[in-house]
Amino acid sequence: MIGLSILLLFGVLDWDDCLSEKSAWDTLAWFAVLVGMASQLTNLGIVNWISDCVGKSLQSYSLCWPAAFGVLQAAYFFIHYMFASQTGHVGALYSAFLAMQLAAGVPGVLAALALAYNTNLFGAQTHYSSGQAAVYFGAGYVDLPDVFKIGFVMALINAIIWGIVGTFWWKFLGLY
């Protein structure tokens, strides 16, 4: 908003320019609301409650840390279908999923870096998954069903590459 104010103040843009960009304002408004909702889920304790339930469930299965790591990483990635932004998702779930992985015995650096890696990948999962994705979809080059199909297929391809090549690379780096 400060940047927009400066552009308006110095005459780089006028208010008619701003009014003609309806999709940009629409995107800004929706992301503000959805990020706010994600932060409220955290503030109300919903995220902690869910992480406690998942943690207890994983403990009841007595999974070894590599299995718990795989399950939690997949869950963290695919839960993003329910979030409208990377910021909201990370703010609400990153620390909870990191805590669950540490409790399951996953090496800390591996867990933290893998969650960060997944955060970058799910930005292209849907048309609402990140600010950039909304802009690309809003340009009208890709139909909505195709966005979901391509996002899911790319998620599977990335998971296969990450699961095969990444396993060896992280072992080489000494992360586990």
Q: What is the strand and helix layout of this fold?
A:
Layout: H1 2-9, H2 15-20, H3 22-43, H4 46-61, H5 65-78, H6 86-103, H7 108-121, H8 131-138, H9 144-173
Helix pairs in contact: 3-6, 3-8, 4-6, 5-6, 5-7, 6-7
How does this model look, in words?
The protein is mainly alpha-helical and 176 residues long. The protein is 77% helix and 0% strand. The protein has nine helices and no strands. Helix 4 packs parallel to helix 6, helix 5 runs antiparallel to helix 6 and helix 5 runs parallel beside helix 7. The chain is elongated. 21% of the residues are buried. The model has no long low-confidence stretch (mean pLDDT 84). It is found in: Plastid, Chloroplast inner membrane. This is Dicarboxylate transporter 2.1. Keywords: Membrane, Plastid, Plastid inner membrane, Signal, Transmembrane, Transmembrane helix.
Salient structural properties:
9 helices; mainly alpha; 176 residues; plastid; 0% strand; single chain; elongated; malate transmembrane transporter activity
Tally the beta strands. Answer: 0
The poorly predicted ranges are: none
Counted by DSSP, the helix tally is: 9
Terminus-to-terminus distance = 44 Å
Overall mean pLDDT stands at: 84
Q: SSE order in H/E notation?
A: HHHHHHHHH
**How much strand?**
under 5%
Radius of gyration: 19 Å
Class computed from helices, strands and strand pairing: mainly alpha
Overall geometry comes to elongated
- Percentage of residues assigned to helices: over 70%
The biggest beta sheet is recorded as: none
